Structure formats: C-alpha cells, structure tokens
Amino acid sequence: MYNILICDDEQDIVNALKIYLSDPNYCFYEASNGKAALDLLASTDIHLVLMDIMMPVMDGYTACREIRKIRDIPMLMLSAKGTEGDKLYGFEMGVDDYVVKPFSPRELMARLKVIVARHAAPQAAPTDECIHVGDLVINKAGRTVKACEQAIDLTTKEFDLLLYLAENRNIVLSREKILNAVWGYEYLGEDRTVDWQIKLLRSKLGESRDRIKTLRGVGYKLEG
Questions:
Q1: Which fold would CATH assign to domain 2-120?
Q2: CB 118 within 8 A of CB 184
Q3: φ/ψ (deg, to 5) at 91
Q4: Residue 188 pLDDT class (50, 70, 90 cuts)
Q5: Bridge-based pairing state of the strands 97-100 and 75-79
C-alpha cells in the first residue's frame, strides 16, 4: 500500500483529489495545514505528499522546508500561485514537481504515477563513484557535489539534474529529454520546469555555473 498525504485547507479539493487519484494501491491521509502534516509525518509512514501553499497555521512552503529536514520523500506542490517566482521558490524548498490549479486530473495522475514508480523501483548501485567535470566533483554514491573544492548543498532534484547533465556532458539535451530522464514523464506542456531548475542549479554552482550552457530553442549541455 502506498500512503499519500494530501495537505490542503479546502476539503472540497481534498475530496476531489481522492476521487481523481482513486487507486486500490493508494491509501490517503489528510492534513489541513503544514503543522498538521508535520505531526502526521512524525507518526505515519507517508510515501508521498501533495502540498498546497496558502494555508493557516503553517503554509506549504514552510512545511516543505521542514519536511526536507527530516524526510527525503517525494513532494508535489499544488497551488493557484503560478508565477515563475512561486515555482522557483517551491523547487528551492525541495519539491519534486509543481502543478498549478486548476489542473488536469489526467496530467496530475500521470505525474503522480511516475513519481510513485521512480521512488518504488530499486536503485541500481552507481558504477563509478565520482564524475569529474572540470572543477566539479559529483559523488554518485554519496550524492554530494563539490565545486572548486567547496561543498554545494543541492536538493534531490537539483542533484539528479546535475548528475544527468554530467553523465551526458558535452551533449546537447532537449528540455523534453531532460524532463523524461530526470522527472520521469513524457512532455506534458510544462518544459519551463527544466528552465527553473537550471536557474536554481546555476545559482548554487558559483564560478562553475558557466559550464551549463543554454542553446536557445534547443536545450542545455554541461561542458567539460
């Protein structure tokens, strides 16, 4: 059984999500704010969180940040706040995906199923412990990154994105290809997700950020 926590202060939305995502393998838990979600996570084996942003007591951004301190579980943010700044901040808090309300139930189900499948599948042991790209050192087994010998703190998705670019260094990768490899779903209309994560990744890499090249209208590549 796969335990999914829906955190939203609007009961109608919670009920609708349970209908949209109905599956005999899913067990749903509910929380009406971020504080209640944290309390539930402390006592229940939750496998995935669907998180709203605007809630009383504790908002979704704060809740995601606090969850990341104690658990490395997939989080999908659902919100009517759909500006680029909102999404960037959500990814910075460590969410795996960001879906804007109103959303397509079919798209939401597709994204959720892929997240479930990717986290449920056994992870293959890394064949090479470290990848060196110039002054970047990516430790696959330890999931750590150094740039110019300085440790870089990356979210789970930022690390996955950098690792994918490094494993395909000097190859131009389209946004659609990156989405499918890192997020695990075929292109569903929101390829800006890649742009936002690239922007956040560059902001953390210091002088090494220039290794990530943008080919306008084509995609990205990591030079090294």
A1: Rossmann fold (3.40.50)
A2: yes
A3: -65, -35
A4: low
A5: parallel
